[in-house]
Design goal:
By secondary structure, the chain is an alpha/beta fold. 50% of the residues lie in helices and 15% in strands. Strand 4 and strand 5 (152-153) form a beta hairpin.
Length: 435
Amino acid sequence: MFIFPLVKKLLKSSFNFVKINRLLIVLATIIGLTFQLAILPALTQQPITIKTLIRADEAQQLQPLVTKFNQQHSDIKFQIVEAPSDSNQVEDLYTSSFLLGNSPYDLVYMDIVWTPKFAAAGWLKDVSERLSEDELTQYLEGDIAGGMYQDKLYRIPFRSDAGMLYYRQDLLTQAGYEPPETFSDLLTISQDLQQQGLADWGYVWQGKQYEGLAAMFVEILAGNGAFWVNPDTLEVGLDEPKAVQAVDFLRTTITKNISPPGVTTYAEDETRLLFQNGKTVFLRNWPYVYSLALQSPIAGKYNIKPMVHAVGNNSGACLGGWGLGISQSSKHPDAAWQVIKFLSSEDSQREFILETGFVPSRTNLFNDPEIVAKYSYYPKLLKVVQSSALRPPIAQYAQASDILQRYLSAAITGKMTSEKAMQAAAKETRSLLTR
């Protein structure tokens, strides 16, 4: 250092202790300032807090990953604010925080159908440049598509979900049937097994007037070669003949007593319980049912497959699931991205899936040895989720869904004909999209 030769020179030349004392005072001052300006802040700096809002039940399931992240990142503190268990209430809380400005949430943990609304409102940051093409291909194609709005990526998938058909393998084998591929197959097999007294009902699905009704209907539309709303052109297809035929299929299951009359009031769990208790041959539901049914009287007697479809068309599985976006108002987007990278990583997803039995969003995890050892049906599940059908990624999705639910409910309960109900739904939806 330059100081010591200077001290030595002073000592040799004049033993000028006054100058030495002054020099030492200056040296002490420099060291003190250096400590205050550089070293002390580094020792006392508080970590950046990154907050998100998540339903209480899932917040508890995520806590081990939160703890692990915070242990590995001393400069960032990831914090989950627990919300009500109702997803609609969580969406409302996020919306209110954005409308009021200065949202306290850096990360937005969102249902796939929230993405277009939040992105269109300017509440999310574009994260398109944060992932390479190679990284994008490691996720389910439908999950990435569900995070896009107007060709930009706003949501990184964490866990996926998709509708599927459950069937009683034992009953089909006993009656000499292969699993159904078409709507017609399902109706025929259902009626035959009911007539043989092998089951009370042939097919149960979610007919209650709520979001689950719209999700279920997306699959029937896709399987019939029809569509709801084209997100690119905003063309509405609900009153097209194939869409009306999709409604007719649901009506037929009720009028022919293949589905119970009460199906128009059923949500996921009511239908699950009928299937688990051995009352029905076929069930449309989500992956969560598989693990629960393993603890029921039909354990080992059922299987899963992609949803049935019309002849000449492909199966459709309504895509659900949750992912993470960065709030436009976040003051720490880079720190928020570190949390997203950690949670969506292969290791974190594997740990979460093994603990919860949810569906991964990374394709290779469906055949991961650890996961398959615990959940042997995951390779079959991959085939289902790859035949995904998205609910329309439009900014007005919530209003469009409400319109469809009302008129579809009127049709399946016999208050309106399928044709009149879909004509009315299409008219209101077109009006909504042109405002």
